[in-house]
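Recap from last week: sequence in, structure out.
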Amino acid sequence: MLMSTTPLPAVDLEHSYARALARYLQRGGEGPLHEAYELGRRALTEGRGVLQMVNLHHEALTRLLSQDSARRPPEDTAMRAGEFFAECMSPYEMAHRAINEANAALRKLNDTLEEEVRRIALALHDDAGQLTAAAQMQLDDIAHQFPAAATEKLRAVKSLLDRVDDRLRHLSHELHPAMLDHLGLAAALEFLAASVAERTGLQITVESTLVIRLERRLATALYRIVQEALTNVRRHAQASSVHIRLGSHGAALRCTVSDNGVGFDPHRVSHSGLPSLGLIGIQERINALGGALHIHSAPGRGTRLEITAPFQEDKHADTGTAGGRPSYRARRSARHP
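Predicted structure tokens:
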């Protein structure tokens, strides 16, 4: 595919598209098709959606046909117009493939990170637990060698070790809750909420209307998302209560995390150039699931995160290279050398 480095004239997209389409309908050729591709890139850069482009094409073609309906047979016009529009949409196709690639990479990265987190959680639970147990036994062995006053101090040390062991077990379960695999997402979130509430003083409630067992990757991702959301609340919201809701909406899981904190302006955060790292992490996990995040907040009015994600991951995601498919112009040339 030939790529032009010459920018298109500063004419609005609708007029540029209509002129290029008219030239292609009149005489064909590679020039108008190349311009169609560049117009597609420009539309993508401007944030035009696919439906907007369909409407733009329809209006341009309708005007051209009304101006000269006898110029060429209707079926020939439809074929040429379709070729032009397909070339214009090539950048959208490649962008879609690139997004699929990025999401596949994110899923792979998240799976790798989860395996590492699982390893660390097991080390905390088993190795650290064995060490604290061994320390407890050593203290028991030497306790009889000291006078009563020293024995009381040893009991205090043992009490501290008990607290350390309990804290390590809680951290282990937060990192990778075994109940997520055995009892499901709602139970794991209830355990997480109780642990966070104990540490922070937040009043956290979990409400679930889910009646199906979630696929492991989806359940793990949602657990991490809620975990990050609670961290954001603790660090920034100055809230006293949080409410977590799990449910379904059609073929999608729906999760909301609401707090009564100070709130913020989502528009300012997203355009400030310094977005919350927590929100970035949440958005990346949701992107990897093919889901969506909506933030409802305002200064002084708390914050509500709404997360939706399909129950079944997309089995047909294209994992080919982002630039692997040639433009319509190249495909057409291959068919008609």
